[in-house]
Amino acid sequence: MKRVQKTLLLLLLPALLGMAPAAAQRTLTLEECREMAVEASRELDQARTQVEMAGYDRKIARANYFPNISATGAYLHNNRNLSLLPLNISEGLTGMGAAAQARYDASLQQIRQLLSSEPQVAALLMNDPKFVSLMQLLSMADLETPLNTIGKEVNDAFTLDISNIYVGAVTLVQPVFMGGKILYANQMAALAEELAASRYDMQYAETVVAVDQAYWQIVSIAAKKRLAESYNELLEKLVSDVEIAVREGVSTQADALQIKVKAGEAAMMLTKATNGLTLSKMLLCKQIGLPLDTEIVLADENLEEIPLPQLSGEKAMEDVWADRPETKSLSLATEIYDRKAKIARADMLPKVAIGGSYMVSNPNMYHSFSNGWRGGMLSVGIIVNVPIFHGFEALQKTRKANAEARLYQDKLDDAREMIQLQVTRDRKLIGECLGRISMAERNLESARENLRAATVGFEAGVIDTDTVLGAQTAWLQAHSEYIDAGIELQVTAALLSQAEGNIHE
Fold it and tell me: The pTM is what?
């Protein structure tokens, strides 16, 4: 806290020297300062975001209980079609007309050669008009065109058109048994959300305590400023009285100089208190989200006596551990790693899921790859996965998670011991602070009476200036100790409340 104030002093002192008066003063109570600090804290805003993100993770984990439904579409262009016939048969079909025509022409040519070898038979046949007409018809016969057409049609019938393929499918997968992995993942996500909330509570308590410390520091400095003003007034009056006594020959010039030195020290003390009050208020403005030059007045700033905090009864340590966010966080972390070990163990167990899909395609594979959407295929099945061996990976993950759970359990035990030590220390400090306040009140009362008697004696001329200065110094010290004791009690009470886990939103 002091280091922050010194840094602010170095950075902002030039601005303070020329700072113009700001708007009207704003009176703030301790509770208002807490609320404004909580609203303005970026750390708390980040912690709230972490809680929100953990909530989303929990909902994400819960989604694994539900079936996974997806739709898929695909398009594929091919530069060649698919033939169900071997290449030689395909070529034979497309060229069978030409082959048949060649064999037919060869057979016809053999007939002509046979006739030419038998002139008498040829002359007899050629004189028959019917034979001549038959030979002309046979010469004009075209076998190639129709047979090629038939062959092409047969070849095309065995060729699948796959130049443009469209496929669509809707798939559903429903987990049935995942070895408990989904259950433990959901439990771990819920614990992680509680962990984020616990960390938020921790940050909230730190923010509140920091504001309390800044608040009561301002009250302390304001009280000491008033004390410095009162001390300055006493010395100024004493300076005036001594100057009169010097003129009358009752006191010496050395007495006057000694008191003037004290008056200068008191003026410097007042200046430091004024600057310290300004810087402390700027620090509080930063914490509660106000502009640094905002004029604020605290509700307890002008009180003559520091109020006593409301102290609760002594709390059982079991309740303290249950309410402290630190132990909550470590306990939750231990449970999270316990679930993590169970998730790793689930990887060694069989997994069962049921699935179904409906697929359509164009060309339709169920109708000879003909183009068009003519219905699809519905498939339903069950999937069983049984892990057998993967280098004992799941076993090592389980052991690691168990070791991490033991690690956080040890941290939790250490944290409980430290919290018990912290609570015991703060409770004893509360008792010491109460004793200091009681003693400071008695000392202050004595110092006041001593100062009154010394002032009366000095005015009566029976007491010298050294005695009066000593009485004033003793009064100043006793009053300062009383202020310090009251502020220390307030701050210690806030720390004890944090240590016992009583600060929560």
Answer: 0.72
Number of domains comprising the chain: 2
How far, in Å, CA of 474 to CA of 304, rounded?
19
442 and 322 co-located in one domain: yes
Q: For residue 376, tell me if it sits in a domain.
A: no
Q: Which of 404, 299, 387 is nearest to 342 (CA)?
A: 404
Co-location of 121 and 259 in the same domain: no
Residue range of the domain that includes 127: 82-160
Query: pLDDT tens digits, residue range 354-395?
Result: 999 998 888 877 666 677 777 788 889 999 988 887 778 878
Q: What is the rounded CA–CA span in Å between residue 106 and residue 417?
A: 113
Evaluated on CA atoms 293, 298, 303, 307, the torsion sign reads negative
Give the closest residue to 465 by CA, choosing from 312, 284, 275, 254: 254
Q: Does residue 122 lie in a domain region? A: yes
Question: In which element (H, E) is residue 296 found?
Answer: strand 296-298
**What integer pLDDT is reported at residue 18 of this predicted model?**
39
Give the CA distances from residue 131 to residues 20, 122, 251, in Å, rounded to whole numbers and listed in that order: 134, 10, 175
| pLDDT tens digits, one per residue of 261-286 | 877 888 888 899 899 999 999 999 99
Query: What does the block give as tokens for 234?
Result: 């006493």
Residue 447: CATH number of its domain: 1.20.1600.10
The candidate with the shortest Cα–Cα distance to 266, out of 475, 461, 15, is 475
Q: Is the dihedral of CA 79, 84, 86, 88 positive or negative?
A: negative
Both 123 and 187 in one domain: the answer is no
Question: What's the rounded mean pLDDT across residues 111-120?
Answer: 75
Residue pointed to by tokens 């929100």? 52
The mean pLDDT value for 213-217 works out to 93
Verify that 106 and 32 share a domain, yes or no.
no
- The answer to whether residues 474 and 448 touch, using CB atoms and an 8 Å cutoff, is no
Average confidence (pLDDT) over 13-38? 68
